[in-house]
Every structure is written in structure tokens, then in C-alpha cells.
């Protein structure tokens, strides 16, 4: 990690840490924390890897991913991953200046009225839709991705947002477009809906790695403090092995995320393989880490008053979002066998072309 | 807020140097040509079972052994990352690299860290040429995971040491030239780890008896090595008398994090992917996706550890994690193969069937060689501050 990245992480930890206690997070579940978003936004952390010319931070994807990982660690109740890594990225790809406020991406490829003057339709399970100042709508077109920006306030009469949440109380809303006037579309050549899905999988994985690090930290502290049979749980060999296994899962998931970041940056590996791989790895690690984390905590971890559940409920929700392990393994496996014979080492693993 | 874990497990970002990329293509070209000539066919676990002195010498001739060692000892003064690239290309090809493996990975670096100038000049050039092979004398019949209970002992004699005892699970002792023996040179009441030394023994010395131990696939590479009053001259003590324990711990960290800890079954994985590509089923495609996802993560872990070593760090905890996670991964490859392809389907694909059988029969070794996974989890737990 570079010194600059360390400073960035320190600053982000300071902001997010203020909002990550059980009381603050629970108060924001079922809704979102506008205060947290404002603080984050004022530090210029909401579009880190977007070019400065478009109002972004001019940083790298690695910077942005490390911030998202910390958002996962602190159970941040704001659309940090979704808005910065997907919304702002899409808007910037289409050459839009990044507007203020959270951005929510909406795929409208299949909606009626695309290409006509107005469009209508229902888009389910949109993360943080109610928080958005703008929707970044996108649709697959021959040769590229059409992207448009919709100002929520200006088009309020054509939008209906029905509230819903995932099992961690994070907004997952249903958005209805009612004769929404077409936005100004720009088509980004070569970009596909699959690329957006891959990036969403990577963003989700980074959140999950952060949440898993939190579960591991909480578990380590707990087994050192909790005394049973006359000694701390940490003295029991089976408990020590559980913690070692959890650490192995966390490191492995984090390595998968790092490999994907490297691949997206074009510095080794194939991004279309490494991004789903990161989410497969994060999802299967999350299964182990949540199970063992709860096991070493016993009943206290099962209560709402103790903070473990903030991370474990998110992990259970997130492993189902942007592709389950099974769905993504099929996607990844299909891409692997399409690369042709004798390509496993050179093209799949090393990403040579 | 406790960020201890994240900091401990933090590994550096990586960028392979351009020289490594160039080297990779040279190595791959050579391997492709050798395969075409029929020099070898890919085998699972070939880094352990494929003992081929001619092949090792050919690698040495091309400058691919002792790659990061100083040129004055026959090395090539290149980076650890370049060694990593050569290593992973050899493993991906399932090439027969067992003859020089221990010398290149452990014994050579051991001489560089702890050896005398005379020892370095005597052994390293031959190792780098792929002509001198070392075996490791560590485990004993009564001391496996608990190395502190070793009883092989050397006592002072005129001009050297007299060595007595038995080492076991010694790979290729019947084909190697030398063996590094971890033995007691004194006994301490309070410190179980004190009083060990490493002696280099010429395997042709009088009093050395090598007895084969056959393993599940009926192959012979393990041995029991007995030392009956073997004389070892003073100049073959490696490092300091009494410092054997810490010397060997440093070696073991190198032994645990290399790509061989998750690539032993790569030849089977390659057959599996090819077979699924030829006749895709939903189950097969999903299995390929799951295995490739794990492989990408493991390779990244191993590569970042090599990067950390290059930067002068000692990432022993992540190294132990690679060995634990990596061996569990490679053991899944044959299990997934049998879940995806029935015995009849496997029988119709002879190379898949052969690699599968190899992998199954050699699989139990992965989780104990280099330290059992249970011992490694203990090391990790300690590293986590427990």
C-alpha cells in the first residue's frame, strides 16, 4: 500500500468510524444516513476514481476499492459502493459531469418505450433508489451501452419509488418509470451490460471483504476476553483453528478482489474472469466467516445489542446481490471454456491475449 | 477500532517486471518444445515425483536455476519475482523438476544466508547448474509434526562430528548427492528448541544407509536414511552450532508459500477444463468457474508473498495461510473431477483418468508435507495474537 493510500484509509476510517456503532447503524437501517453521505461527499470521496475534469477525485480504482472495503467494514448506511463505483463510473463513461448527491444505476434495456419519446416500466431491487439525486439509466444497444442521466427532482411526477430493504435493512427499492421523458443518451462503444454486472460484482466483493475483516476483528477480541473452563476461549485449540480458518478466508477473498482490481487496471489477468471470481470467492468465504464468527461468539453474537450482526446480516444479504456464487460460477465457467483449448494457464489465469 | 488483522494480512501490490514477462515466454517456448519432443508428459505432483537429472541440467544450462543467487556462485542475480515466474511455468507444465527442487528452493538460499564462503563456492554453482541435488533430513520415525523431539545426534570428534540416528520421509535420498540433517548437538533442559544444528552429509559417506519407502501409487521417492557413526567434517556444519532451529524455521517459510502448494494438480485441472469444454454440462461449467475463482485468488496470494519477500519482509503468517488454503484447494480438484465425470466417462478419456488417479493417490501428501495444515493453523493463530 502506498503512503497516500494509507492516509486516505485513515481519513475514511475516521469519518466512517463515527457512524459505525450499533446504535447509529440500527437507527439508519430501513432508511439511510444523509449525514454520513454529506460528510463523505465533502471530503471528495464519492467519485474517487473519476477524472478530475468530470468532477471526480482523479484517483485509481485501487483507491476507490479500498474506500468501499472500509465502508463494508463500518457497515456504512449510505450508497458508497453503488454510487461511486457504478453510478459515477457510468456517468463518467458517458462524459457527464458528476452531479451532487447519490447516484443509482438503473438498467432499462428491456423497458417499453426505449427509443420512443417516453419510457415506462418497473425496475425491482434497486439499491438505495430512495436516496438518489439522479438515476443513471443504461441500456444495451448494438455496439455499445446507451447511458443517460435523470434528475430525480425534476422528473418526480414520472417516478414512483416503492420502499423495500434487504435483510440488513439497506434500501432495495422498486422504481416505476411512468412515461418518463427520454434523457439525453450517449452511447459508449464497446461497453456491455455484462461489464456493468462484472463491476457491480467487484464492488460488492470489496464491501464483503471489509465486513469479513470486521467479523474477524470482533471474533479475535471476543475470544481473548471471554473466559470459560477457567481460561480464555483463545487458549482452546479448536477455537484457535477456527480463527485461523477465518483469517485464511478473509485473506483469500481480499486477494481475489486485489487480483480483479489489477486486471481491470490492465496490469495482469483478465478482468471479465477476475471480477466474477472475486465475488465467488467473497461469497464462499462469507459463508465460512459468518458461521465461525457466530460459533465463537455463542449467544451474545445472536443478539441485536452486540455489533456482530451488523456485519453478518450484511454478508448474508450481499452474497445474494450482484450474483450468487452459483450464478457467477456458471458465468465464469462459461467464459473459461469459451477461451478455447490449452488456454487455461496462459489466457485464463495470466490473461494473455 | 482494531485494525490489527487487516494490517497483518496486508500484502503489497504487484507489478511483474518486464524482465519477468520476457523470461516467461522463453521458459514457455522451451517447455512447449520439450513436450513436443516427448521429453516429458505433464504429471500431477511432478515437482515431487518427477526426478529427471537431464531435465534439471537443461534448465540449469539455460540459467533458470539459482536465478536470484549472486553470479559469483553460478546464480543469475535476478529478482525473486523472476524465480516465481519460472517456477509457475514449470508447475503449469507439470514438468519433471524434482531433482533440483529442494536445492533451488531451500538448500541454496540456506547456504546464501547461513553458509561459509567456502561452502557457497563448493555447492552453489553445481546446484545452479542443475547437477548437485540436496535432500532434507528433518522428520524422524518418532518426530514428525513435533520436531523439537528429534533424537538424531552428533557428537564432537577430532576434526568434525560423529552422526547417529534415523531420518525418514526423505525425498529422493537414493538419488541425491547430499542431505542437510537437522540434529542435536547438545541438550538443554529449559529450551526444547536449543541445541540443534544443521550438518551437510555426503550421501556416499561410510555408514549412511538408504532404505526405500513405497507410497500409495507404488512409486519410490521417500526413503528412510540411517546414520551409523557417520563422520561429518567440521567444514560441513551449516551456519552456527546450536542455531539449527531458527535456521530451519526461515527455510520453512520459503517452503510454504510457493505456487507448488496449489499447483500440484494443475495438470488434472487442465484436463478437467478441456473435458468440460468438449462436452459442457451445467454442473461441469459451474465446477470450472468455482475452481478457477479459487485458483485466481491463490495465485494472487502467492505472488504477493513473493513480492513481500523481494522487498525484504518475512510474511510467515500469509505463507502458512497459502499452504493451508492452497493444499485444500488442490485436494478438491480430483473430488470435483469425479463429481463431474462418471467412472465410465473418465475411462473414455485416458489422460484425464491417468491424472485423476495420480492426484487421488498422491493427494494425502499435500496436507502434511511442509508442516501439517493443523500445525500451520496453530502458527496462524499465534500470528493473530492468540
Structural account:
The complex is a heterodimer of chains A (353) and B (386). Helix content of chain A is 50%, strand content 15%. Chain A has helices spanning 3-17, 22-28, 34-42, 61-73, 80-93, 193-225, 237-264, 271-297, 308-318, 325-338, 344-349; strands at residues 103-107, 118-127, 134-141, 144-151, 159-162, 172-181, 186-189, 227-228, 231-232. In chain A, the strands form three sheets. In chain A, strands 1-3-4-7 form a four-stranded mixed sheet, with helices on one face. A three-stranded antiparallel sheet of chain A has the order 2-6-5, with no helix packed on it. Chain A is built from eleven helices and nine strands. The two termini of chain A are 29 Å apart. By secondary structure, chain A is of the alpha+beta class. Chain B is an alpha+beta fold and 386 residues long. Chain B folds into three domains: 7-132, Acyl-CoA dehydrogenase/oxidase, N-terminal domain (Butyryl-Coa Dehydrogenase, subunit A, domain 1, Orthogonal Bundle); 136-244, Butyryl-CoA Dehydrogenase, subunit A, domain 2 (Beta Barrel); 258-383, Butyryl-CoA Dehydrogenase, subunit A, domain 3 (Up-down Bundle), CATH 1.20.140. Helices cover 52% and strands 14% of the residues of chain B. Chain B has a four-stranded mixed sheet, with helices on one face. In chain B, strand 6 and strand 7 (220-233) form a beta hairpin. Chain B starts with a helix and ends with a helix. In chain B, 51% of the residues are buried. The chains are: A alpha+beta (353), B alpha+beta (386).
Amino acid at each position: 500500500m502506498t503512503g497516500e493510500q494509507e492516509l486516505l484509509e485513515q481519513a475514511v476510517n475516521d469519518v466512517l468510524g463515527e457512524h459505525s456503532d450499533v446504535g447509529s447503524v440500527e437507527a439508519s437501517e430501513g432508511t439511510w444516513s444523509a449525514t454520513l453521505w454529506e460528510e463523505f461527499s465533502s471530503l471528495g470521496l464519492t467519485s474517487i476514481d473519476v477524472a478530475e475534469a468530470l468532477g471526480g477525485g482523479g484517483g485509481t480504482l485501487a483507491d476507490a476499492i479500498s474506500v468501499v472495503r472500509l465502508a463494508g467494514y463500518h457497515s456504512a448506511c449510505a450508497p458508497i459502493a453503488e454510487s461511486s463505483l457504478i453510478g459515477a463510473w457510468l456517468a463518467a463513461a458517458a462524459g457527464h459531469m458528476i452531479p451532487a448527491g447519490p447516484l443509482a444505476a438503473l438498467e432499462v434495456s428491456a423497458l417499453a418505450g426505449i427509443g420512443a419519446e417516453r419510457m415506462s416500466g418497473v425496475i425491482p431491487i434497486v439499491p438505495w433508489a430512495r436516496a438518489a439525486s439522479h438515476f443513471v439509466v443504461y441500456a444495451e444497444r448494438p455496439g455499445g451501452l446507451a447511458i443517460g442521466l435523470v434528475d430525480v427532482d425534476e422528473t418526480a411526477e414520472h417516478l414512483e419509488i416503492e420502499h423495500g430493504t434487504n435483510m440488513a435493512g439497506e434500501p432495495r427499492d422498486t422504481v416505476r418509470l411512468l412515461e418518463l421523458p427520454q434523457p439525453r443518451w450517449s452511447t459508449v462503444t464497446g461497453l456491455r451490460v455484462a461489464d456493468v454486472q462484472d463491476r457491480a460484482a467487484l464492488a460488492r466483493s470489496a464491501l464483503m471483504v471489509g465486513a469479513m475483516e470486521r467479523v474477524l476483528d470482533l471474533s479475535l477480541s471476543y475470544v481473548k476476553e471471554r473466559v470459560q473452563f477457567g481460561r480464555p476461549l483463545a487458549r482452546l485449540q479448536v477455537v484457535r483453528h477456527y480463527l485461523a480458518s477465518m483469517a485464511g478466508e478473509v485473506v483469500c477473498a481480499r486477494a481475489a478482489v486485489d487480483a480483479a482490481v489489477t486486471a481491470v487496471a490492465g496490469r495482469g489477468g483478465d478482468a471479465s474472469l477476475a471480477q466474477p471470481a472475486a465475488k465467488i470467492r467473497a461469497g464462499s468465504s462469507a459463508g465460512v466467516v459468518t458461521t465461525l464468527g457466530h460459533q465463537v461468539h455463542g449467544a451474545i453474537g445472536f443478539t441485536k445489542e452486540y455489533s456482530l450482526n451488523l456485519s453478518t446480516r450484511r454478508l448474508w444479504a450481499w452474497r445474494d446481490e450482484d450474483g450468487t456464487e452459483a450464478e457467477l460460477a456458471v458465468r465464469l465457467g462459461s467464459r473459461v471454456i469459451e477461451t478455447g483449448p490449452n488456454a487455461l494457464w496462459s489466457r485464463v489465469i495470466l490473461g494473455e491475449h | 477500532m482494531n485494525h490489527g488483522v487487516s494490517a497483518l494480512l496486508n500484502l503489497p501490490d504487484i507489478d511483474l517486471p518486464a524482465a519477468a514477462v520476457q523470461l516467461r515466454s522463453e521458459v514457455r517456448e522451451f517447455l512447449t518444445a520439450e513436450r513436443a519432443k516427448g521429453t516429458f508428459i505433464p504429471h500431477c505432483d511432478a515437482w515431487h515425483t518427477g526426478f529427471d537429472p537431464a531435465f534439471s541440467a537443461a534448465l540449469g544450462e539455460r540459467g533458470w536455476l539459482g536465478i536470484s543467487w549472486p553470479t559469483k556462485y553460478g546464480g543469475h542475480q535476478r529478482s525473486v519475482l523472476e524465480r516465481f515466474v519460472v517456477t509457475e511455468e514449470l508447475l503449469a507444465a507439470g514438468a519433471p523438476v524434482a531433482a533440483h527442487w529442494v536445492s533451488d528452493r531451500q538448500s541454496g538460499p540456506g547456504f546464501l544466508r547461513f553458509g561459509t564462503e567456502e561452502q557457497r563456492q563448493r555447492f552453489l554453482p553445481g546446484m545452479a547448474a542443475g547437477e548437485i541435488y540436496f535432500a532434507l533430513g528433518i522428520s524422524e520415525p518418532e518426530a514428525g509434526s513435533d520436531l523439537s523431539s528429534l533424537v538424531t545426534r552428533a557428537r564432537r570428534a577430532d576434526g568434525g562430528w560423529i552422526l547417529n540416528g534415523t531420518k525418514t520421509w526423505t525425498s529422493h535420498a537414493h538419488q541425491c548427492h547430499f542431505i542437510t540433517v537437522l540434529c542435536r548437538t547438545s541438550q538443554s533442559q529449559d529450551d526444547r528448541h536449543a541445541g540443534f544444528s544443521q550438518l551437510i552429509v555426503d550421501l556416499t559417506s561410510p555408514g549412511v544407509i538408504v532404505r526405500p519407502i513405497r507410497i500409495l501409487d507404488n512409486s519410490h521417492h521417500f526413503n528412510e536414511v540411517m546414520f551409523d557413526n557417520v563422520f561429518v567434517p567440521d567444514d560441513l556444519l551449516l551456519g552456527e552450532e546450536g542455531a539449527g532451529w531458527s535456521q530451519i524455521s526461515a527455510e520453512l517459510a520459503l517452503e510454504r508459500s510457493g505456487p507448488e502448494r496449489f499447483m500440484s494438480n494443475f495438470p488434472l485441472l487442465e484436463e478437467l477444463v478441456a473435458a468440460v469444454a468438449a462436452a459442457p454440462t451445467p454442473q461441469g461449467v459451474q465446477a470450472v468457474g468455482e475452481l478457477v475463482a479459487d485458483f485466481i485468488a491463490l495465485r494472487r496470494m502467492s505472488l504477493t508473498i513473493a513480492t513481500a519477500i523481494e522487498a525484504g519482509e518475512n510474511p510467515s503468517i500469509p505463507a502458512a495461510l497459502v499452504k493451508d488454503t492452497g493444499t485444500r484447494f488442490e485436494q478438491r480438484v480430483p473430488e470435483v473431477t469425479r463429481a463431474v465425470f462418471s467412472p465410465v466417462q473418465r475411462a473414455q478419456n485416458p489422460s484425464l483418468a491417468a491424472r485423476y488417479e495420480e492426484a487421488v493417490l498422491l493427494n494425502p501428501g499435500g496436507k502434511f508435507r511442509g508442516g501439517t495444515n493443523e500445525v500451520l493453523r496453530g502458527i496462524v493463530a499465534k500470528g493473530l495474537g492468540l
